[in-house]
Write a structure and sequence with these properties.
It is a single chain. With 194 residues, the protein is mostly helical. It has eight helices and no strands.
Length: 194
């Protein structure tokens, strides 16, 4: 059964289900003005009122509009390939720029609307953080008095990146992403003088 704006049951015809349906269509590339001619029969004035009246819908709709500029249909194989590239060390924005991969806005949209993708991306970012921790250990082990300054810079860059990755990691129920200071759980790095 198709839900229309007139039978959605909420004041002005809005419901969360209708809002999500509108956002899904928009993220797939449908122009907001096409909602009037669709089975949804949404007028632009109603859409504007819903955007003004519901901050959650406004945020999702904005993200859906950004994703809809270059729509990329979700598929588990595309999502898995994207996450593989991230786990292998590509930054999310770098992976988004590669051929056949979704845009950054689409990745954010998938993270909001696809729990399995959010979990895969969280695992990929976690793998990337672990790789960085291994690199920090290798750099520290290889440091000598002559290379101390450059080693410190390399370690600091990787620490900064690990914190950034922890903040980018999508929230997955039951998984602690970072502590109050923004560090990934269990990541302790100390720099010592030689």
């Amino acid at each position: 059964m198709t839900t229309t704006a007139t039978d959605a049951g909420a004041p002005g015809g809005y419901s969360r289900a209708l809002g999500l349906h509108i956002c899904d269509r928009t993220a797939a590339g449908a122009a907001p003005r096409s909602l009037r001619q669709s089975p949804l029969n949404v007028r632009q004035s109603d859409l504007r009122a819903w955007l003004d009246g519901d901050p959650e819908f406004a945020a999702l709709f904005g993200l859906a509009c950004a994703a809809g500029v270059a729509p990329q249909r979700y598929s588990l194989s595309r999502a898995a390939e994207f996450c593989r590239r991230v786990a292998d060390g590509a930054m999310v924005s770098e992976a988004c720029g590669q051929a056949g991969m979704p845009s950054l806005a689409t990745v954010q949209w998938w993270t909001q609307r696809r729990p399995e993708f959010a979990a895969m991306l969280a695992a990929a970012l976690d793998a990337q953080s672990r790789r960085l921790a291994d690199e920090v250990t290798a750099i520290a082990d290889a440091a000598s008095p002559e290379t101390l300054q450059i080693s410190r810079m390399r370690i600091a860059a990787r620490q900064w990146l690990a914190v950034r990755l922890a903040r980018q990691t999508p929230e997955v129920p039951g998984r602690a992403v970072a502590d109050a200071e923004g560090w990934p759980p269990g990541l302790v790095v100390e720099a010592a003088e030689f």
